[in-house]
Amino acid sequence: MKSPARCLLLLCFAFAPPPAVAQQADDIVVTTHHIDAVRNARTPWDEVQNCLKDNACAGAIKLIAGQVGIPDNAVRLVETAAIYSAKAEGEETRYTVRAVSSRKICSVKVRTISVVPATGDRASLFSISPSADSVGIYTWTPRQGIGGGRSWYEGDVFIVHVKASLQEEYLKSGKCTVPPTGSINYQCRGASGVNKGLAACGAKDL
């Protein structure tokens, strides 16, 4: 049985904000969360080193930096276990990531790595619902029959947090895409084609 993923790290960036905002070194911070219920236990520091060495994961960080107009080498790493929780029950796992203190969720990037089963009505499911105050993540990975092997969803979720006092400015500038009220939702299933009415999991920006 896969163990719940854990919150990994906080990536802090300094960047040039919209013209109406006075620049501060920590206007935006990014947390990265590795969702993988079958991985061996590793420390948060191991995970960020793996991310920064992996082309796809490091590339996602570089993309985020470019979208908010900051140098991709302006990164400071801090553990963020205090804002993260996960609960596994049967074939379901639910994760909650709260906004960093005094901040709001600005945008979310999903980067799928692997999905098993990849096709069919029982393909593994991934769902994410960002709001200004928290991000809810849900995975359904079916118990396979005898000889069916393990099932999983594995991917990286990057959450951009903006200072609460700057949320409106960044929404107006287009750098933040999560609405100030309500939430948005993304669901995917499997790794190819359309499975039970849902598109295959891949990269998604919210």
Characterization of this structure:
The chain is mainly β and 206 residues long. The protein has one domain (7-205). The protein is 15% helix and 40% strand. The chain has a six-stranded antiparallel beta sheet with strand order 3-1-2-9-6-13. Strands 4-5-8-7-10 form a five-stranded antiparallel beta sheet, with no helix packed on it. Strand 11 (194-195) and strand 12 form a beta hairpin. Helix 1 packs across helix 2 (55-67). It is globular, with a radius of gyration of 17 Å. 41% of the residues are buried.
Element order, helices and strands?
EEHHEEEEEEEHEEEE
Q: How many strands?
A: 13
Biggest sheet character: 6 strands, antiparallel
Helix content: 10-25%
Shape: globular
State the strand order across the main sheet.
3-1-2-9-6-13
Portion in beta strands = 35-45%
Q: What is the arithmetic mean of pLDDT?
A: 76
Distance between the termini: 30 Å
In the predicted model, the low-confidence regions spanning at least 5 consecutive residues are: 1-23
Structural class of the secondary structure composition? mainly beta
Number of helices: 3
**Count of all domains:** 1
Radius of gyration in whole Å, from Cα?
17 Å
Main attributes of the structure:
206 residues, 13 strands, disordered N terminus, mainly beta, 6-stranded antiparallel beta sheet, 5-stranded antiparallel beta sheet
